[in-house]
C-alpha cells in the first residue's frame, strides 16, 4: 500500500468511497455523522485536488491496484478550532491538519486508517510541524477509538454547525510531535 497525492483520475474512486460511507450510515451499519448531499461530496474532493491537498491510498486488491482510502491534508485549521482548548498554543505554521479521512467501507479492516494516519504524521514531521490536529463527530465512535489508539488526545468538544451539517459535537484531537 502507498499514499500519494491524488490526480484527476482518482476523483471517481474518492467520490465512490464517500458514497459507500453514506450508504453504510443510511443502512445503520455505521455512524459517522456525515450527510449525503451535504458532506462529503465529490465537489469537496475536486476542490482539494485543485489545491493539491487531496491524497489517496492505493493497494493491490482483487488483482488490481485500487484506491482504498483518501483524505485532505493541509495547514488549514477550521474556524471552530479557535474555540477548542488545545494542549499547547502551537503556532499555526507548525500545525498540520487531517480532514475527511475516508477508508472505503469495501476495504475496511485492513489497517488502512492506521497507515494513512502514519503517513500524515510523517508528512507533518517533514514539514517541520510540531502538532497534528484532527476532528471528528462525537457520534463517530470508531474514529475516536482509532485516534485514541494512535496516541491522539481529545482536547475539546465544540458544539457547532460543521461543513453544512447542523448540531454537530465536533471532537478536536491533537498529537504533539
Written overview of the protein:
With 177 residues, this protein is an alpha+beta fold. Helices cover 28% and strands 34% of the residues. The protein has four helices and seven strands, in the order βααβββαβαββ. It is globular and about 45 Å long. The model has no long low-confidence stretch (mean pLDDT 97).
Could you name the key traits of this structure?
about 180 residues; alpha+beta; seven-stranded mixed β-sheet; 4 helices; globular
* DSSP E strands, number: 7
Distance between the termini: 24 Å
Structural class based on helices, strands and sheet pairing: alpha+beta
Main β-sheet description: 7 strands, mixed
Helix content: 25-40%
Order of helices and strands: EHHEEEHEHEE
Alpha-carbon Rg, integer: 15 Å
Shape: globular
Determine the strand fraction and express it as a percent band: 25-35%
Strand arrangement within the widest β-sheet reads 1-2-3-4-5-7-6
What is the count of DSSP helices, taking H or I runs of 4+ residues? 4
What's the rounded overall pLDDT mean?
97
Low-confidence stretches are none
Provide a brief overview of the structure:
By secondary structure, the protein is an alpha+beta fold. About 30% of the residues lie in helices and about 35% in strands. Strands 1-2-3-4-5-7-6 form a seven-stranded mixed β-sheet.
